[in-house]
Design goal:
Layout: H1 2-9, E1 14-17, E2 24-27, H2 31-46, E3 51-52, H3 56-72, E4 80-84, E5 91-94, E6 98-102, H4 106-109, H5 112-127, H6 130-141, H7 145-153, H8 160-169, H9 184-200, H10 206-218, H11 233-254
Parallel strand pairs: 4-6
Antiparallel strand pairs: 1-2, 3-4, 5-6
Helix pairs in contact: 3-5, 5-9, 5-10, 6-8, 9-11, 10-11
The structure holds zinc ion.
């Protein structure tokens, strides 16, 4: 309790409410730091890969991205969308709205609606500040206020482990929000937000479950990166079913014209 009061007094703690689920969370890492870290990681990641800047797939990603980010409605984000030419089955949205999709995930998305769900899921992680929350927990574990004070004072009495976490928070490690897995709770939460966002953007929310069915079918001995964290696709589908009626109401009001579930990949 003392630590929380101290952090409040320093103005370093923010209490946020997660969209749709309403869960309350505590973040000690300011949004401005997370977004700067996201921007830096985005540039570092893109400098090492081949980004597709033309073609139908690139256009589709941009179109879906703009629709989802409009619904997410976060003016502090500097929304950007990149399609990366790489067989990896993965996608991410870094703090600050920096989105990357690998071309290897397209066959699993299958259509524009599938892309809208995964986009919504990744944006959901960023909007619900899961990265900052994870960072806050790590900072808490290794000594809370001491670490933040050391950072504020510029004193360097940190252990290598503490430095790793702190440098990650400051965006000095390229892995922020990309390589570190989210918890089971964060994944379930991002699924719910993703399905709500896609529905509000005019995509049929039933497709969300289908994405996990297809993702599960990839399984095999070595699951794709996207599946390397729990919960299982079966648990994800059960969770999505509970929220489907609410998502359908949103979809009824926002339904897009044209074919958004036809096979694309
Ligand atoms: Zn996720």
């Amino acid at each position: 309790m003392t630590r929380i009061l101290c952090l409040c007094a320093l103005g370093l703690m923010a209490c946020n409410k997660v969209p749709y689920t309403g869960r309350k969370q505590v973040n000690v890492v300011p949004g401005i730091i997370m977004n700067a870290a996201g921007k830096q990681s985005y540039a570092a990641t893109l400098s090492e890969v081949s980004v597709m800047t033309t073609g139908d797939d690139h256009q589709t990603l941009t179109r879906v991205g703009k629709r989802i980010s409009k619904v997410a409605n976060e003016p502090k984000f500097d929304w950007q969308y990149s399609l990366i030419d790489d067989p990896t089955v993965n996608a991410w949205c870094l703090p600050g709205g920096y989105i990357g999709f690998y071309s290897g995930i397209l066959p699993t998305l299958k259509n524009e609606s599938g892309m809208a769900f995964v986009m919504g899921h990744e944006v959901g992680h960023a909007i619900a500040k899961h990265g900052a929350e994870r960072m806050s927990q790590q900072i808490g574990v290794i000594g809370g206020l001491t670490v933040i004070q050391a950072w504020v004072d510029g004193k360097s009495k940190l252990t290598p482990e503490q430095k790793t976490v702190l440098f990650g928070a400051l965006g000095l490690g390229a892995e922020v929000g990309v390589l570190l897995p989210f918890s089971r709770m964060h994944e379930s939460e991002a699924d719910v937000i993703g399905m709500m966002y896609m529905a509000e953007a005019g995509y049929p929310p039933e497709e969300a479950q289908q994405v996990w069915v297809r993702m599960g079918a990839l399984g095999g001995e070595k699951p794709p990166v996207f599946l390397s964290t729990h919960p299982s696709e079966k648990q994800r589908i059960e969770n999505l079913k509970k929220w489907l009626p609410q998502a359908k109401k949103k979809y009824a009001r926002a339904k897009l014209p044209g074919d958004v579930t036809g096979d694309r990949w």
